Each structure stands twice: as C-alpha cells, then as structure tokens.
Amino acid sequence: MSIEVQGVRRAFGDVLAVESISLRAEPGEVTALIGPNGSGKTTLLLMLATLLVPDQGQIRVDGLDPVTQPTQVRARIGWMPDGFGTWDALTVREVLLTIAAAYRIAPDRARTRTDELLHTVHLEDLADRRARVLSRGQKQRLGLARALINDPTVLLLDEPASGLDPRSRIELRDVLRGLAAQGKTVLVSSHILTELQEVADRAVIVARGRSLETQSLDGDFVAMGTASWRIDSLDPDRLTGWLVDHHVPARKVGGGQTEVEVAGEENAARLLADLVRDGIRVIGFTPSQGALESAYLAATEDRQ
Ligand SMILES: Nc1ncnc2c1ncn2[C@@H]1O[C@H](COP(=O)(O)OP(=O)(O)OP(=O)(O)O)[C@@H](O)[C@H]1O
C-alpha cells in the first residue's frame, strides 16, 4: 500500500478544511480525488506532500509518516501543485536542471533526465525558451516534468489537466497511465470527470472535507452506472410520444436530441432495440452522462 490516509483532519482557524478523510491508493494505479470546490482536496494533498501537518489522523506515504519523516517522504514523492511559480528568467531546461540540483542529482544524470522529461511532456522545442513566455498549458507540462525529476514512486498531482488543450489532455492521460504501468502510485485531483473515468482505476469522492466513497472504475461500473443517454431520431415527435407511452423519463436537449434516463448499458440496449422494433428511426444513441459523473452527482447531492 503506497498511500494510506486514516481519519485525517485539518482546520485553519475556524475553517475546517478537512474534517475526516480516509483513503488508500495502490501502486500501479491512478487514483482520482474528486469533489466540489473547497472540499479539501488541495489541503489533503499538501498534507501528503509534507507541506501541512494534520491536526488528527494518520498518513502513510510509501510506509512513511510525512509528519515525522518528511525528508524521506519528499525523496519519494513528485508534487505538482495547482498553479505554481517558476523562475521566469530561466529557460525551461534551466528550470529542470535547477530542480535536479536541489535533489542533488549529479550534473550528467540531470542533463539526461531533463532531456527525457522534456520529451515525455513534449516541451523539447521550447527547452531554450524563458519560462516566462510559456502558455498556461505549457507551464502545466513543465510542472509535471518538475514533479518527475527525482523519479518518484508516488505522484501527487493537483488539477494537472487545468489549462491543457484537448491534445495535451490526451497526452497527459497517456503519461499518467504510463507512470502507473511502471508501478508508481498516482493520486490526481481533478474536476474533469469524463477524462478521469478514462484514466483512473479508482475514484475517491470527497465533499465538505469528508471522504464519501471510493469507486472502482472498472468495466462493470461503467456498464452499470451510465444513467443518461442522448437519442437522435428522424422521427422526433413519434419518439417523444413513444417515450411518454412507455413511461421513460425524457427531455428535449440541444441539436434536436432527446435525453433519456436509463440506468445501465443493458437497459439502454433494450430501449434501443424496442424503439427500432416499433419503427422509430434512431440515428444516434450515446451516453450523455458518464458513470463517474452520475456517481459523483449522487454522492455530493446536498453537500455543496
Ligand atoms: N490556508 C488556509 N487558510 C484558511 N482557509 C483555508 C486555507 N486553505 C484552504 N482553506 C479553506 O479550506 C477549504 C478547503 O480548501 P481546499 O483548497 O483544500 O479545497 P479544494 O477541494 O482543493 O478546492 P478546489 O477544487 O477549489 O481547488 C476551503 O473552504 C478553503 O477556503
């Protein structure tokens, strides 16, 4: 077990940022930490990263206690904060070499490592540009490279996809899957649920400083959990009538489509077969809310 959090609490004066969070994250897996704004995700990650001390509860990172063994924990983690400063006057390569020096990585090794990481995050072409000229997305990628410089076993990433364009997000997904495949423990906080569903093995849902549930994101979960579907038909009026007659909850959405509430892929497949059997010409039938979104909305209802 590589991250273990048990009953952790942290207040800032009167503000109870984390009331009680418990979770586990395994090596070889991507674990997503999801929750509304202000639910305590960043505070928790800061405690894991040795940068805040919990008021109560227990944390183990790679078997070590961040409170009593911070130096050993820092050597094993890669930490990517949500928005970070870089030294604007340095080039991208120099930023990474400076971080490598802080980790006391030998200069030769630091140069090879920097080149490898620039390649991983697709910043080779910008290696000699000043960090100040980077776009937000490019800075995020530099932040990821920075977090990887010491070849950590545990990665703590706070909103790594924010500011990334679609291609960079897909690439980030591949990088995270690759890191998990190397046996690393990846804990990533994010709001982008549809993407997390594709990259994460497990999601921990938090709200108001409490961990509510841990959801395994395997095929069964996706098959069972997808709860709403969009139907595009050449016979929209007949479709509406049919859904009313068959008591299927539905509403009109943009693009002339109809959204229906049907729990699980089995039931959706049956609905589609019934529509086609009754002569309704369906030209599109797609999930409109992913299983993770449905689970998140159900778990955080009334807890915003
Ligand atoms: N240093 C601090 N002093 C006072 N309050 C704080 C401090 N840090 C966080 N908080 C409060 O604690 C709560 C949890 O904040 P936190 O940043 O952990 O949430 P989050 O889930 O990461 O939010 P987001 O998704 O918006 O990044 C918020 O109400 C926040 O205002």
TrEMBL record:
InterPro entries: AAA+_ATPase, ABC_transporter-like_ATP-bd, P-loop_NTPase. The keyword Cytoplasm does not apply. It comes from the Bacteria. Pfam families: ABC_tran. Keywords: ATP-binding, Nucleotide-binding, Transport. One of its GO terms (molecular function) is ATP hydrolysis activity. Gene3D superfamilies: P-loop containing nucleotide triphosphate hydrolases. CDD domains: ABC_DR_subfamily_A. Belongs to the ABC transporter superfamily. This is ABC-2 type transport system ATP-binding protein.
